[in-house]
Design goal:
By secondary structure, the protein is mainly α. It contains five helices and no strands.
Length: 110
């Protein structure tokens, strides 16, 4: 899973490692881009939170093997249900929350 930086492209891989090695390396990956309006960290934090609440709850897990079984069962169920993250923080809401006013926004001249 990668964010949408320009460095996370086949072109960047080929530029860095050369045409042959870069193309070979890029074909080894299955790329899953995150939404342009959300960080992959948000997705990871949500997933960990859901796992903690849904799979573990307030239980204390006695062994690593028991934890693995519970985690695998939770993951199978989540995949079976094809659960998705629904982003509700729109651009308009973000601008209101953080006080962004495009009329006063200035870029640096560097």
């Amino acid at each position: 899973m990668v964010d949408n930086l320009s460095t996370h492209t086949e072109k960047a891989c080929v530029t860095t490692f050369g045409p042959r090695a870069g193309a070979w390396l890029w074909r080894r990956f299955t790329v899953h881009y995150t939404p342009t309006h959300g960080s992959w960290l948000n997705q990871a934090e949500i997933e960990i939170s859901l796992f903690s609440r849904q799979a573990l709850g307030r239980d204390r897990i006695a062994t690593l093997d028991a934890l693995r079984r519970r985690a695998q069962a939770w993951e199978r169920e989540a995949n079976r249900l094809a659960l998705k993250i629904r982003w509700r923080f729109t651009t308009a809401r973000a601008r209101a929350k953080f006080g962004y006013d495009p009329h006063t926004f200035m870029r640096s001249r560097d």
